[in-house]
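Lecture 7 notes: from sequence to structure.

We start with a single chain of 365 residues. Read the sequence below before looking at the structure.
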Amino acid sequence: MGGLAFESQIKVFATPGSERLAQDICRSLQSRLPKKLIPYEDGKLRLGEMKLEMFSNGNPQVEVENVRDLFAVVVNTQVPPVMENFVILQLLLDALINADAADILLVFPYMTFSRSDKKNRPRISTMGHRFAHMIGNEFGIDRVLLLDPHDGHIKHYFSGKAGKAANEISAMFMLVDYLLKTFFSEEGSTNDWVVVFADTGALKNYRKIAHLLRLPTAYIDKDRPDDSEKAKVERVVGDVKDKNCLLIDDESLTGGTLVNDSEYLFAAGAKKVIAATIHAVLEKRINGGVCVPPAELVKSLEASRIEKFIFTDSIPVHHKISPEMTKFSILSIAPFLAEAIARTILGDSLTELHRLESVDLYRSY
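Now the structure, written as tokens:
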């Protein structure tokens, strides 16, 4: 490691729903930092205290523990209720600024509004751009870490007063490492496999997965004629007949798309399908916001013909999957995020994390 980029001690905070992941990050981060950067007497890094108070007039307020002249790390991943947590994040950042934190690093394992970044039909909001602009310009935060945003261009929206883009890191190298160790560890085990991308967007963002696995590629050609979430499958481009298919997408909202895509692959002659997704949202709302229980969504995945689902916990997912369900492998993202956070604090390059061999630094399985 290089010299310290920051001499300030470190405190970690989390918005509601992100606490478990942030606690795991604290445990992984502790071994990566010099002891002098940990401010607690017992030497253990833990979550900083954040109190949320709701006044009788409905106005919320956040109070944080002492952070004067300290480096604050804020972990915020998208969990329901999304709008409420969006406001709480702003309150937390404002409280840290008012409490004279020396600097703030904002970590988005899964960024709210990351899919709302383009005006693809008239008269709609594009909060992906507006939110990032607000973080950089209104709050003046120029240290932002994004894990696999839906589109890489979103990192440039964060360039506020300092003109700095957010830093983007990807879990795809960890995913490839896991696949090599779990499915392709024996010689010849990649025979008859093909990497299938769920759409052209996944192909653009994750083509390197096929390169690292040394596998041929295919993709599912889709069209969204009305710009809705639901896409129409036009065709499977590439040879999947009598092949084992590794189906790749950056996120799974309900899991239904993965299942539907797998059926098209089976209809095209695929022998078996395993699915890998970095962000497992596994949420569905119908009839004006009524939430379908995540357990129902997961049961439908368990009952599908997909042989295995590989997710990360960039979004809390463990509580949605029963222990008896055998189709699911959840990779912990916390050591990877802790490594990236430590490198930011210690003044080391994040570029090294964009290599397969660097998974040795944070492997969690």
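The two ends are 24 Å apart (CA to CA). Keep this in mind for problem set 3.
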